[in-house]
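User: My advisor, Dr. K., asked me to get a structural model of this assembly before our group meeting. I'm new to this, so sorry if the format is off. These are the inputs:
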Amino acid sequence: EPEVTQTPSHQVTQMGQEVILRCVPISNHLYFYWYRQILGQKVEFLVSFYNNEISEKSEIFDDQFSVERPDGSNFTLKIRSTKLEDSAMYFCASSEERAPLYGYTFGSGTRLTVV
Amino acid sequence: SQQGEEDPQALSIQEGENATMNCSYKTSINNLQWYRQNSGRGLVHLILIRSNEREKHSGRLRVTLDTSKKSSSLLITASRAADTASYFCATVFSGAGSYQLTFGKGTKLSVIP
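Assistant: The format is fine. Below is the predicted structure of the whole assembly, which you can bring to the meeting.
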């Protein structure tokens, strides 16, 4: 069964450093998303991406964050100047349609720890 | 806020029993989805129910939706130890142009063999 692949599975970074979280969505999917889950809290929407541009973003997704689809397969989330409160599990998801009948396919996540 | 909220927060049952989890939300929705998350892992889509549907089945899963009460329930019948996980409802707001998922806090289900 097709999967969304995320790398690395765990990243530790120093406060103030930049990190890039990588995702390989399912190959025929057109819509891509990032969500995050701070430990013990709800999963929160960050951003959606379609046709090489952001289609929707949340208040969390400020200037510190950016997304990119650098080639035909990867979808990245960059966090500039990380803060302690950026520590969370970051999930990438993809879908074939904007409102998929069968839900979104999520990756296994990258656990980001900012120290 | 259009947040989904599940109850109970935690549920412990014996293998073979049925598990029922409830979700409430605050605004009109396009659809409601249930996801499962095994400890420290990714989210797995279980089932989607549209706002014009009242009930949906998938294998041992049964989902109901009551838009008048803004609530949904997920029933897992004949539970197995492998069903142990956290279960989240997520809503898609019916407002124009927004397709983001809004998740609840989840119900942690433990199925005791």
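One thing worth pointing out at the meeting: Chain B is about 0% helix and 60% strand.

User: Perfect, thanks a lot.
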